[in-house]
Specification:
This protein is α/β, with parallel strands linked by helices. It has helices at 2-9, 14-31, 33-46, 52-71, 73-78, 81-87, 93-100, 116-124, 142-149, 161-172, 205-213, 245-258, and strands at residues 88-89, 106-109, 129-133, 154-158, 176-179, 190-195, 198-203, 216-224, 231-237. A hairpin with a 2-residue loop joins strand 6 (190-195) and strand 7.
């Protein structure tokens, strides 16, 4: 049933999806005190805003943008290829071409900002791309997610040991992979590193992949344009060496500063995985 609904919604203009998505974002904001509190706390912690009015303006914009991100999945996962091609522009693809010339593979970093799903779609139209994903808590939704993401030359890989092996194999073949660098990892899969001035449990996977393969690293951010006009895909090389968790967070911070309203501030980035020790926590 959900697949049928999403396929039907994929026929709608992007502007209409974004309109209804903004309403969905505000509905969640109104009904969830936990979401409101987390969003506001994360904005305050970031230190990006000179005063409360500026933070509030970004907060309200972020609420609508988060809802748009959900609604646009219908178009990105199940929309017509020619329609999607008309919606995405990119003048930075030479960054990827330069990275490919080294022959060691490419690691795309797609943080929770803008339409990260269309970033993967765009890349998979041009090269083989293995994309790591976290299976949803409701197992019944996984086939839908995989179907939506397995477009073009995309190969979804679950965030399991088998999926991580797929990433290593793809890089050994000189191909590209995609990772959400600001996704909170499980216990034993990360290290504590500052993110906007506060310790965040940060994945070490990207560090290991880079160290093992020597792959080039590219930050990808698909900026959502107003009034459903589409997206602009920004691609920038990440040259930090070593690319440890602290450097990874700094790279994400840089792209967030470029467009703070489109970051998912309501995401629980600072959650503490079960069994992980928080830096400075001396409680018994």
């Amino acid at each position: 049933m959900l697949l049928t609904v999403m396929q039907w919604c994929a026929r709608m203009p992007l502007a209409a999806l974004h309109f209804f998505g903004a309403g969905l974002g505000w509905t969640v904001y109104a009904l969830s005190p936990t979401y409101r509190r987390r969003l506001r706390e994360n904005l305050e912690i970031s230190g990006l805003f000179p005063d409360a009015d500026a933070a509030r303006t970004t907060e309200y914009a972020a609420v609508a943008e988060a809802g748009k991100g959900i609604a646009e999945l219908c178009k990105v996962w199940f929309g017509k290829e020619d329609e999607l091609r008309a919606l995405v522009t990119c003048s930075d693809w030479q960054v990827v071409e330069a990275a490919q010339r080294a022959g060691k593979g490419v690691i795309f970093l797609t943080p929770h900002i803008g339409c990260f799903e269309v970033s993967a779609w765009y890349g998979a139209q041009r090269l083989p791309l293995t994309v790591l994903y976290r299976p949803p808590k409701r197992a019944g939704l996984e086939p839908l997610m995989v179907a939506g993401r397995a477009r073009g030359q995309a190969r979804p890989a679950p965030a399991t040991l088998a999926g991580v092996r797929q990433l290593y194999k793809a890089l050994r073949r000189g191909e590209a992979i995609g990772v959400l660098p600001d996704q909170a990892p499980g216990t034993g899969e990360g290290e504590w590193a500052d993110f906007f001035g506060r310790p965040a449990y940060t994945m070490t996977l990207v560090t290991r992949l880079r160290a093992t393969s020597g792959a080039a690293v590219v930050m990808a951010f698909a900026e959502r344009l107003p009034r459903g006009r589409g997206y602009v895909l920004h691609l920038t090389p990440v040259n930090a060496d070593p690319l440890d968790p602290a450097a990874l967070n700094r790279a994400v911070e840089e792209v967030v500063r470029s467009c703070p309203a489109q970051y998912l501030w309501g995401y629980n980035r600072y959650k503490v995985p079960a069994g992980a020790e928080v830096p400075g926590d001396t409680s018994c």
